[in-house]
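Chain A, query sequence.
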Amino acid sequence: MATFLYKLGRLAFRRRHFVALIWVALLTLAGVGAASAPPAGNSSFSIPGTEAQKAFDLLEQRFPGQSADGATARVVFKAPAGEKMTDAGNKATVEKTVDELADGSEVASVADPYTGDAVSKDGTIAYASVKYDVSGMELEESTKDALEDAAQQARDAGLTVEIGGDALQAVPETGATEVIGIAVAAVVLVITFGSLVAAGLPLLTALIGVGIGVSSITALASALELGSTTSILAMMIGLAVGIDYALFIVSRYRAELAEGREREEAAGRAVGTAGSAVVFAGLTVVIALVGLAVVNIPMLTKMGIAAAGTVAIAVLIALTMIPALLGYAGRRVKPAGAKGRLLGRSRKNGEQPVAPAGPPKANLGTRWASFVVRRPLAVLLLGVIGLGAAAVPAASLELGLPDDGSQPTSTTQRRAYDLLSEGFGPGFNGPLMVVVDAKGSDAPKDAFTDVEQQIKGLDGVVAVTPPQPNKGGDTATITVVPDSKPSSVQTEDLVHAIRDAGGDIEAKTGAETLVTGSTAMNIDVSEKLNDALVPYLVLVVGLAFLLLIVVFRSILVPLKAALGFLLSVMAALGAVVAVFQWGWLSGLMGVEETGPVMSMMPIFMVGVVFGLAMDYEVFLVTRMREAYVHGEKPNQAIVTGFKHGARVVTAAAVIMMAVFAGFIGSSESMVKMIGFGLAIAVFFDAFVVRMAIVPAVLALLGKKAWWLPKWLDRALPNVDVEGEGLRTAAERGTGPDEDRELVRT
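Chain A, predicted structure.
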């Protein structure tokens, strides 16, 4: 691999005009495609194999023409203090609003509050339900404007009016903190390289890669039914890995220059060595993200594949565009150790460096590694105990999906949610729809009644509507209002209780009872993701173990890497639970409503953090293995690895944390949670696991860390991540091409 990438790096350096033209053309093509693509349609959320999805499909079949996936809106009215919604003036205002809403071209139906029992018991709050023919993403702007105008007219008449439902759903915003994250990354790069030019290369290539990836997702959003969150997550991960991968190659290029190599040769060797690790690290991220398909939730699969595509683009750009830009930069990118104009006076052409008076001062990475190898047991225990303490809250993990109750209080959807809870109880925002399939029953009407009575006798039920049969009379729907909010454990228990009762009814009457609706779907998807977490974790950790055996040619090093990964993931999940479920530091993070952790969070975090953890593991430990193979003692090899790799890995981790943390300012609770979770996971993995636990374990193991059975050593392929083939060629005084010719002869 190293030899092939070496040739690729030199080719890109020499043919830089051609390489740059290709990537600019791809960016332009993707941008034109995004600009000309039709707006994204309905981002369908299906969960095959679950009862809620089965019931939803049955509704579309037995109740045709009702637009089961059409957008909905609840226009909630509250009377002024001291008045009621049943007062003549307020009633006239509401009826006028209902008439205006019914005139919309995309409106399927509007329910009058006064004829549909939609006025609270105290008479202060009422709501009108609006049903549309198309989904929320397909609604025309004129339809949304008409909805807001009708609400505003009612406000002008003196009522408090808010709008809930998905009719007004908007593309989530990330806020200014995303820009701050990129600015922090730029500062770290400037400090690391001491040069604006060198610092600008990773940023430029990362932005180009993300531009191509996100534009491609936008262009395909309508055809593939991709949600708006998909592009945000692809941007988040693409920016982080794009900057890091380019950082690794530029750093190695500067190190090669410091060893006296010509610039083209240095570019080739940087791509052949650091580029090999980039390919491996990128491959692990791609596999982990694509592996999300095993959960069999289409939306999660699409998110994983889209993010994986952006990561693949980041790898390709790092391997080709970085050496091309290094060719353009020329002498403006200095060798490692040479100060640029920002951090010190540059040497003039031909000026020789002044030799230091004494031995060179050890850098921070060397001093830290020396401390760890002297006190390995203490460092190991402190790191494990610290991560274990951070992971304690994960034992209380509750999974769910966000609803309007998790939105900021500044939104009309959240205010409508709160008004409905105030007037009709918290469960009113998440009613359950029970579908009774009596096609196999001899007495369908009796079956419908039995289900209704059975549900009324269950704990936690506030209201049950009479059965609403279809035209054929073989299927009916029953709406159940819980006494708890949609995301609560009590509502989840009620769903299971209805399903358990349905089993007895089916045995008695032959009618099948199914529970669906958005609340039941959220519960089903949470359970499905929870059930898939352990198998997915085994798959990912097992894959990491096998890949690292090939890379490090060791048994204990991969085992240590996999166990460290589990530690960092569990600690990160604990931090997420503490903030978003328990409410610790919630004000600082902008979390206005605590509740269950997003269902996708654990699996998504496992997939992404796995790839990032292996990224840092490869760049640190390959340097250690290289030193050990060349004759250094185990502890000295650890110090050597940190001497060359700690600064770059630290910069990469800080950059990745800054990029992920930048998405905490998003208005979308799911994006906010993922941004925080990934940022804290990178902190734990990079600075606690890789910088402390890894060297401590290696110091305790000594030579045993690099043990591999001889039969396995012979069986494993040589992927040459360290670029050993290039060094062998250099030692013979030949290039890789000439060396290969010598081998052939």
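The first helix runs from residue 2 to 14. The CA atoms of residues 179 and 276 lie 31 Å apart.
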